[in-house]
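S.,

Sequence below, as promised.
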Amino acid sequence: MVEDRFCQSCAMPMGITDEHYGTNEDGSKSGDYCNYCYNNGKFNKDLTMGEMLEVCVEFMVDENVTEDNARKALLEILPTLKRWKTNG
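The prediction came back faster than expected:
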């Protein structure tokens, strides 16, 4: 069984193919971040976690997910991701 991989910045499912994975500085595939968040060893945009939440809400809302439900889910998951996790 293949383990689901999620971007450690935006929580997007990245799947098992390379198409959604970002790249490290040496051009290798990043195992942690998607190509929308990370390329060439750097984050594509300098965002706060709150700004990332607002970007992600737009992509989650559809006929089955309300804006409020998307926001609640992101408020739970984003702080647990590698980019946003704080020690303490």
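The mean pLDDT is 92.

Coffee later?
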